[in-house]
Amino acid sequence: MKNRDYLLNEYAKLVILKGVNVQKDQIVFIQSSINSAPFARLLTKEAYLAGAGEVIVNFTDEIISREHLIHKSEEKLANVPDYIIRMNEYACENKACFISITSPILGINSDVDSKRLQISSRALNERLKMRRDYLMSNHGQWTVVGYPNPVWAKKVFSGFSEEEAFDRLLESILVACRVDENSFSNWDKHNQKLSRYNKLLTDFNFESLHFKNNLGTDITVGLADDHIWAGGEDVSTFGVRFNPNLPTEENFTMPHKFKVSGKVVATMPLDFQGKLIEDFYLVFEDGKVVDFDAKKEKETLKNILFYDEGASRIGEIALIPDDSPISNSKTLFYNTLFDENASCHMALGAAYPTNTKDGSSLSKEELEKRGCNISGIHVDFMFGSPDMEIIGKKKDQTEVKIFHKGNYCI
Amino acid sequence: MKNRDYLLNEYAKLVILKGVNVQKDQIVFIQSSINSAPFARLLTKEAYLAGAGEVIVNFTDEIISREHLIHKSEEKLANVPDYIIRMNEYACENKACFISITSPILGINSDVDSKRLQISSRALNERLKMRRDYLMSNHGQWTVVGYPNPVWAKKVFSGFSEEEAFDRLLESILVACRVDENSFSNWDKHNQKLSRYNKLLTDFNFESLHFKNNLGTDITVGLADDHIWAGGEDVSTFGVRFNPNLPTEENFTMPHKFKVSGKVVATMPLDFQGKLIEDFYLVFEDGKVVDFDAKKEKETLKNILFYDEGASRIGEIALIPDDSPISNSKTLFYNTLFDENASCHMALGAAYPTNTKDGSSLSKEELEKRGCNISGIHVDFMFGSPDMEIIGKKKDQTEVKIFHKGNYCI
Q1: Chain B positions in Cβ-Cβ contact with residue A34 (cut-off 8 Å)
Q2: CB contact under 8 A, B90 and A76
Q3: Nearest C-alpha of chain B: how many angstroms from A193?
Q4: Cβ–Cβ gap A61/B70 under 8 Å
Q5: 3-state secondary structure chain A
Q6: What is the mean pLDDT of residues B315-328?
Q7: Min Cα separation A335/chain B (Å)
Q8: β-strands A378-382, A389-393: how paired?
Q9: A37 contact residues in B (CB cutoff 8 A)
Q10: Which residues of A touch B31 (CB under 8 A)?
Q11: Is residue A71 very low, low, confident or very high in pLDDT (cuts 50, 70, 90)?
Q12: Please, what is the end-to-end C-alpha distance for chain A in angstroms?
């Protein structure tokens, strides 16, 4: 790759200035695996140069986490030491922004007992609810970004040497994130485009969307009352603009938790907690999953659906045209951050309160009244295809074609 | 290196079983730089196999720490967030054992303002006093071990490629730590030998030791009342045997804080907080440094001496024969863990309470009455040489020759 160092630094600047848009003296909390340390170092430097008051890098390692999962007693797995909670409280109380670097070691937990995985992730989810609420309500800026590791790279580019695969994955990430000598103007233009669709779709105020393709998907997704379409640049409750995902190609909104019916067939595998769920479908009635199957890791899928009451309903529906950079690259990333931006997707579990009018200031009961799904998890999965047809039904029951052959036609 | 993986695993086992001697269900706290992650992973696995209930790996990165030192405000540098204190309290309250992996990036802070370094390290020192007291009083088992990184390796083996230098440093560490197919019996024998000297020296109950060589060292070190010689295997206050350093070649005891007089000339450079102090000497009167100089980093040496009241007095005096494996390897490691085991050394700052009879259960005032030095720091430096002569003076003023030409002759 030409100019590798230059582009990596541009990428880091983009994450700091466009991703979280660090404010003067703000705390920046970076969650990184040790494999992503070179990028965490760049982000730290750029964060300070942008005026951050303090950068906290919380390094973890999936190989060590796997040892915990295998060896700890169930009691220990269920225990989240208070210092971990305090660390997250410290960041939230001080209005930090959060950067999460995703770099999965695919399949690392394939042989780990699902029950033990569940105990551990449920405990973390429950004890760090405060942090999830902070992020999902945009009380601080946050962003999720990617950085390669050799295992992930070899899965995506299996025909190449480890080093070459790493370089190719890095290049794919940089292209997907529109990183070049014009990164910032690229993102301004891109955000403007996403914003136009957000406004258009919000103004239609659709009652429901109907998705249909030749792979078996035929599903009606009712939308929540006063729903808002979002995607691209977002605004924190303190008025700071930021981009929650790099890359992002989606326009998404809040489905109605009781108004989803039909069948959805996934078009990409789903990496969840180091287990890869493949070839799966879900059938919904009145918003709830009533049937499902998967050719691989059905139990993991079941664990997601049975996580809590809200986990078998959806909290997000997102539209991504087939003609988008990531989709056009024909690269399967085996990573939701990238794959969800190549394909229409929905998320099992919690909705973003910001996807309904004034949602960040509503109580849980008020949100639920609008159709907002509540859950301890939020798991996206992809079901888009080049032949996807989407029809919106307005309150007056008239229909509007939104997607034809996988792309916007609205 | 032959059998590299086998030997590394043996090394990890040795650290877990002989170093900290992990007890059933105990918490193991591992402090590791991200450069040492491969070894931290091995230690984690071996700790669980040995019955650990929980392994906490606290990863830090000197490159990121340097960014903090350069960019944070002085106020932020002086602030240790409470979650860091809670993390250490959690470990101490639950009677954890501690493993610290040393892997310095030499000279990394050479251009960092000394004042800022001081603010940061003083804050950490003061806020983590509870942890230092826990370790120095052996309330839990602890050990310090080494693992190479490319920068360190190139400093030690400058004539080699990065990869080769790394391998050579790793091999030197393994040899210094007596790691081979008989690692455990090697350590049993070695500990027995160190233990014999501990007993012999303690039984002499010397009033003082006089060190003299042709490099300018000519110093009398009075010993504390009821002092005990230690070295090699130690015992925690809960009765668990452990080895505080791997490697270790030293017999050491508690000097009397008011009874040190003369000049000591360092024979090796000293890496302190990423700054390398070279060619230095100290002159003592009544236990206190009254004159000093260094050809490089004199200011850093000054910062050590002026850290607090106890920092200009000594808290440890250690004897290492010139004929020891590390010394014989003629390798300068630029790292105290290794270099201090190739050379007689002393430490500025705090003494180990365990180096006087029943010291762990004495109050600060009782310890000081025996001559025990109290300080927020403990910095070893090396002054041994092949021509070192050491004479012990007993309470009855008779003299006993302890070292002749750098080796035990007692």
Answers
A1: 34, 37, 59
A2: no
A3: 37
A4: no
A5: CCCHHHHHHHHHHHHHHHHCCCCCCCEEEEEEEHHHHHHHHHHHHHHHHCCCCEEEEEEECHHHHHHHHHHCCHHHHCCCCHHHHHHHHHHHHCCCEEEEEECCCCCCCCCCCHHHHHHHHHHHHHHCHHHHHHHHCCCCCEEEEECCCHHHHHHHCCCCCHHHHHHHHHHHHHHHCCCCCCHHHHHHHHHHHHHHHHHHHHHHCCCEEEEECCCCCEEEEEECCCECCECCCEECCCCCEECCECCCCCEEECEEEEEEEEEEECCCCEEECCEEEEEEEEEEECCEEEEEEEEECHHHHHHHHCCCHHHHCEEEEEECCCCCHHHHCCCCCCCHHHHCCCCCEEEEECCCHHHECCHHHCCHHHHHHCCCCCCCCEEEEECCCCCCEEEEECCCCCEEEEEECCEECC
A6: 92
A7: 24
A8: unpaired
A9: 34, 61
A10: none
A11: very high
A12: 38
Residues of B in contact with A49 (CB under 8 A): 71
B63 CB neighbours in chain A (<8 A) are 41
State how far the Cα of A326 lies from the Cα of B76, in Å rounded to an integer: 41
Condensed to tens digits (0 to 9), the pLDDT of residues B258-301 reads: 999 999 999 999 999 889 999 999 999 999 999 999 999 999 99
Per-residue pLDDT averaged across B54-71, rounded? Answer: 97
Cis peptide before A247 (omega within 30 of 0): yes
Flag if A86 and B90 touch (Cβ within 8 Å). no
Q: Is the CB of A44 less than 8 angstroms away from the CB of B67? A: yes
pLDDT over 80 (residue B60)? yes
Number of A–B residue contacts, CB under 8 Å:
86
Query: Which of B24, B29, B43, B57 to mutate against chain A (most A CBs within 10 Å)?
Result: B57
Distance CA A402, CA B365 (A): 81
In angstroms, what separates the C-alpha of A186 from chain B's closest C-alpha? 29
pLDDT in tens, A74-126: 999 999 999 999 999 999 999 999 999 999 998 899 899 999 999 999 999 99
Which residues in A241-254 are b (16+ Cβ under 10 Å) and which e? ebbbbbbbbbbbbb
Retrieve residue A37's tokens: 């340390």
ipTM: 0.92
Pairing of strands A27-33, A97-102: parallel
Say yes or no for a CB contact (<8 Å) between A86 and B82: yes
Distance CA B405, CA B370 (A): 32
Helix ranges (DSSP H) in B59-161: 62-71, 74-77, 82-93, 114-127, 129-136, 150-156
Degrees, nearest 5: CA angle B36-B41-B42: 100
Q: Tokens standing for B330?
A: 């003629």
* Alpha carbon separation from B409 to A233, B329, B404 (Å, rounded): 76, 22, 6
Indicate the burial class of A368 (C-beta count within 10 angstroms; 0-12, 13-18, 19 or more): middle
Tell me the pLDDT tens digit for each residue of A220-252. 999 999 999 999 999 999 999 999 999 999 999
Cβ separation B68–A55 shorter than 8 A: yes
**Look-up of token digits 């455990």:** B184
CB B179 within 8 A of CB B10: yes
Q: Tell me if the bond preceding B148 is cis, omega within 30° of 0.
A: no
Chain A: nearest CA to B160, how far in angstroms?
23
Whether B83 sits inside 8 A of A87 (CB atoms) is yes
Q: Which residue type occupies A236?
A: S
Contact B64 A70 (CB under 8 A): no
Q: Give A154→chain B minimum CA distance, Å.
A: 20
Q: What distance in Å separates residue A64's CA from the closest CA in chain B?
A: 6
pLDDT at A324: 85
